[in-house]
Amino acid sequence: MHRIKNLLLHSHKCRSFHELSAFYRSYAASSAAGGSSRGGKSYGTQAAAEPFMNGSSSAYIEDMFEAWQRDPTSVHKSWDSFFRQSARGAPPGQAYVAPPTLRAMSSVPAALPAHAVEQGAPVDEKTIEDHLSVQSIIRSYQIRGHNVSQLDPLGILAADLDSETPPELILDSYNLGDGDLDRVFRLPATTYIGGNEAVLPLKEIIRRLQNVYCRSIGVEFMFINNLQRTDWIRRKFETPGIMQFSAEERRMIMARLIRSTRFEEFLARKWSSEKRFGLEGCEVLIPAMKTIIDSSSAMGVDSFIIGMPHRGRLNVLANVCRKPLEKIICQFDSKLEAADEGSGDVKYHLGMTNERLNRVTNKNIKIAVVANPSHLEAVDTVVQGKAKAEMFYRGDTDGKKVMPMLIHGDAAFAGQGIVYECLHLSDLPAFTTHGTIHIVVNNQIGFTTDPRMARSSPYCTDVARVVNAPIFHVNADDPEAVIYVCKVAAEWRALFGKDVVIDLVSYRRFGHNEIDEPMFTQPLMYKKIAKMPTVLVKYAENLIHNAVVTQQEYEEEMSKYDKICEEAYSLAKKETAVSNIDWLDSPWSGFFEGRDPMMLPATGVQEETLAHIGKVFSTPPEDFVIHGGLKRVLKSRNDMVSKRMADWALGEAFAFGSLLKEGVHVRLSGQDVERGTFSHRHHVLHHQTIDKKVTIPLNNLYPDQANYTVCNSSLSEYGVLGFEVGYSITNPNALVIWEAQFGDFANTAQCIIDQFISSGQAKWVRQSGIVLLLPHGFEGMGPEHSSARLERFLQLSNDDPDYFPPEGPNFEIQQLHETNWFVCNFTTPANFFHAMRRQIALSFRKPLVVCTPKSLLRLPEARSSFDDMVEGTQFQRLIPEQGVAAQNPAGVKKVVFCSGKIYYELVKERESRSLNEEIAICRIEQLTPFPMDLVKEQLQTYPKNVIVCWAQEEHKNSGAWFYVEPRVQTVFRRMGLNKRLEYAGRFPSAASATGNKQMHLMELGQLYNAAMDLSPSLA
């Protein structure tokens, strides 16, 4: 019997019309006879036709087969005969036994002329096959119609890079011809092109399908594996007359096109030689975005977060966000200096935020555009993180109030991997923003690269198919088609909470920028473009021709906007400076008020707070089955708490828990952060016998505490770090942390580090308190599991190696205020504790990069007493020698400065060589900003002729050596010392570490010898 079931389940998938018709004839026979039912299911009625007609015949036949097995009389005798013949081994085509002559009934879908239906003519095999052919034709248009849509305004390229018509869309492929065009076919339930009509002539079916799927809109949606959603899209595009616009709506489209077009023309007249990356060729983007905002606002969204590249940004700022035009125009005046901090950025990279009334919905909305560097798509997940954070703080759990919108370029959407990472986050519980509307401004060209050389997929948008996002390709020179698609996209996002893509197939009227010459590489395209009227001209002519507007009304609308631009131009001339702070996407209203930026904050806490957090963190919940090994971990933690000690995991828990108690939201994300890569954290406890039952102890510390979010991310660095940066810039009163699985892997997120974290404040006055935890340490684990590439972060630090700041009580806080970020390599849990709390306690925000340990996580020596974390204690930028050498500094012959875990190894080596009195070892815990004052203080403690050495476990061309050496030399000069800093470490290497254990130990021995050597260098 299983053989029969498999035969049935697979035979319906066969492309052969003969076999399909065998199934259909059997079905028709049972329908004609009325069938019978058992157990509430009917096999042979018209209702049973629905699953067959909807393409789910497998489930239908399987149910009927199982019913037949239980009771052969429960199905029509034709099916009974079919199953009996199949059981004997007959193939589907032979298993069918013809029932008595069938008469066509109104309930039976038939491919017959009307008179045949009336006369009840027999349904022959050809009729059935033609009916199936028509169903296949309809489905083919739904699947492939976009491939022949008229999408290119220039009429040069097929948007899918293939000029051939798919054979599925050719009538001859179905053994149908011109002679069949007047035949009437009953429409299946899988289409809405008939409206209220159940039957249509074949030529009318094809005409309607072409109007829907092959004109200005190409709909890609049949790959979506959800019948409800595909059916919804079909209804939105196939229903006759659904795409109608009133005269008032058309006038609004024209007015918005005027603003979009005349803004670019105004800038071109005033600054003809300036780069502005204008929107010419895709002016419809402005009415498109405004339509999405209008529609979404009507459905409850009141906050829109936008990310986009440089093309069209000024136009979006002016006409979508309604940034005052004079603020934009004054950016063109290079003589104006900044009125506040920061290097600033080119005008087409800037962000902003604005709250205004939406005049269509009469609702207040907020629009934020996130500052973004060029075309790299790096902003994509930053926008997602910012949106997610706003949803969190507003309690918008389903994204009904906050919506992200991303604008992309075609070449970048296809070419930049971050796009996939962004899409991949769209449905992850801890990262979803419940749907993003993606708009691709499809120039059909990269900088100078033809799309046929720039992508392997038919469309630039194909990557979106992986998340079942519908893709609406649309000719950007058909404004009404664009506006309709935007309305559908907004409804899709509101209804389903899923991503959707709008592909605006357009062109670029000028080169990559306004002073570029595109004819060098695309002569034919730009000869065509030179003759193209603007979309505004074409649309206005259409409206005038159809008496929607008059020529005078059109000209008056243009004059009105021209006047607005000229008035703004006059106001801009009166500006005396540009204010970078006007371009913030999240202004943090009230955060800086009443705060003293020169106040060094206290970060210690009461001991009872530590004890309480430690007890909860180390006590398994009642009636919760945890792993046996984890019981031992918790018991060990409880023992440490009772001894007033903390290892790294406890120090971290103390930091997070004490901030949660103070109402500070803490978010930690990254790969496997819930447990921790090195099985040290265990912030999420899993029930050992009940799936998905978990508990998070740090969320059960206090009844009124803030929320702690700890979430494993996808295996992404670039995308997830960008997400967390976006999260961090939304609210300064939250500790947002991203942890790499190994610090080495941060290199794949380098773009976010370079563009947003290290330089964000300088370029965009964009402060962020984001924390990067990067496991770092040479334990012989090879070149991809040792180095966080500390040198890269230090190279991006902005402190001057040759400048010794003025000494005084404000030395530390002044350094913290002026640096672009903090880069640290801690050796104690207490210092980690204070650094985490300092991120929130400071009156400003700076990113923090931490080289976190691996072996120190469990090293007994790397523990801290409660005494180092209670009130009155604080972060130590430098930890001086605390042993015998400090008690008799005059006897010290060498001072070794180091950072990180190498300290403990040097102490052990010094002990083994009995050099405790001759060598002092000082730990620099904070490398950036460099504690020159404390280094000087330490050197003053020891004799002037003491040997000074920097020791590191990294290779000489890596690690902190190149950063530390010139700064220590500056300290020497400040002290009037003529000496050099010696080096103890590995030799230069192209690889960050060796993969050979023996070589690792040999290199370590050389390091120890150099660090412990008391003879001065001859170099």
TrEMBL record:
<comment type="similarity">
    <text>Belongs to the alpha-ketoglutarate dehydrogenase family.</text>
</comment>
<dbReference type="InterPro" id="IPR032106">
    <property type="entry name" value="2-oxogl_dehyd_N"/>
</dbReference>
<dbReference type="Pfam" id="PF16870">
    <property type="entry name" value="OxoGdeHyase_C"/>
</dbReference>
<dbReference type="InterPro" id="IPR029061">
    <property type="entry name" value="THDP-binding"/>
</dbReference>
<dbReference type="InterPro" id="IPR042179">
    <property type="entry name" value="KGD_C_sf"/>
</dbReference>
<dbReference type="Pfam" id="PF00676">
    <property type="entry name" value="E1_dh"/>
</dbReference>
<dbReference type="InterPro" id="IPR005475">
    <property type="entry name" value="Transketolase-like_Pyr-bd"/>
</dbReference>
<protein>
    <recommendedName>
        <fullName>2-oxoglutarate dehydrogenase, mitochondrial</fullName>
        <ecNumber>1.2.4.2</ecNumber>
    </recommendedName>
</protein>
<feature type="domain" description="Transketolase-like pyrimidine-binding">
    <location>
        <begin position="646"/>
        <end position="859"/>
    </location>
</feature>
<keyword id="KW-0809">Transit peptide</keyword>
<dbReference type="InterPro" id="IPR001017">
    <property type="entry name" value="DH_E1"/>
</dbReference>
<dbReference type="Pfam" id="PF16078">
    <property type="entry name" value="2-oxogl_dehyd_N"/>
</dbReference>
<dbReference type="InterPro" id="IPR011603">
    <property type="entry name" value="2oxoglutarate_DH_E1"/>
</dbReference>
<dbReference type="Pfam" id="PF02779">
    <property type="entry name" value="Transket_pyr"/>
</dbReference>
<comment type="function">
    <text>The 2-oxoglutarate dehydrogenase complex catalyzes the overall conversion of 2-oxoglutarate to succinyl-CoA and CO(2). It contains multiple copies of three enzymatic components: 2-oxoglutarate dehydrogenase (E1), dihydrolipoamide succinyltransferase (E2) and lipoamide dehydrogenase (E3).</text>
</comment>
<keyword id="KW-0560">Oxidoreductase</keyword>
<keyword id="KW-0786">Thiamine pyrophosphate</keyword>
<dbReference type="InterPro" id="IPR031717">
    <property type="entry name" value="ODO-1/KGD_C"/>
</dbReference>
